[in-house]
Amino acid sequence: MRLSRGTRLQLQLQKYIFILLLLCAAGLLAWLSSQHSMQFDWTANRRNTLSHSSIELLRALKHPVNVNVYTQDDDAVHTAVDEIMKRYQRFKSDFHYRLLNPDIDIERAQQDQISAYGQYIISYNGHRETVTSLSENAISSALLRLSRSGDKTLVFLTGHGERNPQGDNNISYTKLAGALALKGIKSESLNLLQSVIPENTGVLVIAAPDHALGPGELEHIDKYIERGGNLFWLMDPGGMQGMEELAHRLGIRFLDGIVVDNNANLRKTLRIQHPAMIPVLDYFPHAITRSLQYNTLFPISRGIEHIDDNWQVSVIAQSLPESWSETAQLGGEIAYEPEKGDVKGPIKIILALERVLPADTDKPAKASQRVVIAGDSDFLANSYIGAGANLQLGLNIINWLSGDDDLIAIEPKHAPDTKLQLDDTEILIIGAGFFLVLPSALFAAGLTIWFRRRRR
After folding, report:
1. What's the CATH superfamily of 52-146?
2. 450 in helix, strand or coil?
């Protein structure tokens, strides 16, 4: 086939136009890739992406964040720092960081009191903190503490046998207080016989007193509630220790007896030895419970009932339908006996109360007052706080009472897919496959090919 001169020119022109359009498309894609990025994290637990809690924290920060990273001139270290810092920059445009060598930037390192490589100075709103771990948990926790600098204090009532946040035994709240300190929440103890409730109290904690409060102490608590103070009240089974009027003011009633669950299959599955150890497997929708992914465990609990409508009430935790409130002494075989006062489950164990404050309080108009009431104090004690999601539930409660609905929890991400665990049978099969089956198959294939070629 012969082509005319005009046809050849037309084909060449089409070729040049195609090349030009191809180069333009490549250049446009290169420009778009420099302006916009898209990433996909397919790792288990999405551990290469910021958690939802960290993203919400960044969105809540109203001021710029500056990070000075002190490290040696090492390309691998710089790459690791860039990778995690850019995760934060994707969600906060005024998140800035600088890579500094303390051996070169000596004056700046002295101002930041740097003593070793790998220290990071995070500055926010006039406050700063030093961290030494290049991880989301360390950085986000530091940002959370800086955002709370100068906030109100968590006050634990003492003087009546309450749980001690500075104690060293199993029934104390030392681990809870330590976890709160890492989140930027200060804790202190208060004896109402020696002092009044401070004005900067963010949350008052009454953790299971075993002696009655005096009239003057109850009056201080009543005034605190009246002026809009937030309260975390934990009560174990037994007497009310003179706080019946406080329960009436809050519109609740504690049930008599101890919550039990005699489900043998559930106890066997969860390895629970006593029917009074109550597991909570499902949670009601609430800011406190939205990040909980595991069961919680409540030892020796009492039920709570809501008896009026002055507050907006939410159930946080309750026992399973097969449970009941046992009014008799625990021992031997137990059975549900309604004729003796037992109350059928499910039994409410934790309630969250909230209301809009009256206009005559000293807080801003339409401010809310929050109260959490628990029928068990042991679930946050040192001996049980590590069970399931007990610690996370406690932190979530304090965060909600403090008004930090969007800063509920920042949990470290674990990598479940970094180890391969095989039993003896699986190891035997893999070993036989590599050392016997595969070599035999290769030998047989080679022998077959050699035999076929020899017959030709």
Report:
1. Glutaredoxin (3.40.30.10)
2. helix
| Element spanning 448, H or E | helix 438-455
The reply to whether domains 52-146 and 152-401 share a CATH topology is no
Q: What is the pLDDT along the chain (456 residues), one digit of tens a residue?
A: 566 777 878 888 888 899 999 999 999 888 887 766 666 555 655 566 787 778 888 888 889 999 999 988 888 888 888 888 888 988 888 999 999 998 888 888 888 888 888 888 999 988 888 888 888 878 887 888 787 655 668 999 999 999 999 888 899 999 999 888 877 788 899 999 888 898 888 899 999 999 999 999 999 999 999 888 999 999 999 899 999 999 999 999 999 899 988 777 777 777 777 888 888 888 888 888 887 878 899 998 999 999 888 899 999 999 998 888 888 887 777 788 888 888 898 999 999 999 987 665 555 555 789 999 999 999 999 999 988 889 989 988 998 898 766 555 555 555 555 666 778 888 888 888 888 888 999 989 988 988 888 887
Task: Name the amino acid, one letter, at 433.
Answer: G
The whole-angstrom separation of Cα 280 and Cα 254 is: 19
pTM for the whole structure: 0.66
Q: Give the three-state DSSP class for 290.
A: coil
Query: For residue 309, what are the CA distances in angstroms to 178, 248, 288, 350?
Result: 36, 12, 21, 17
**The token pair that represents 421 in the structure block:** 């665990």
CATH code, residues 152-401? 3.40.50.880
Q: Where are the domains positioned within the chain?
A: 52-146, 152-401
Check if the beta carbon of residue 251 is closer than 8 Å to that of residue 380: no
Per the CB < 8 A criterion, the answer to whether 189 and 195 are in contact is no
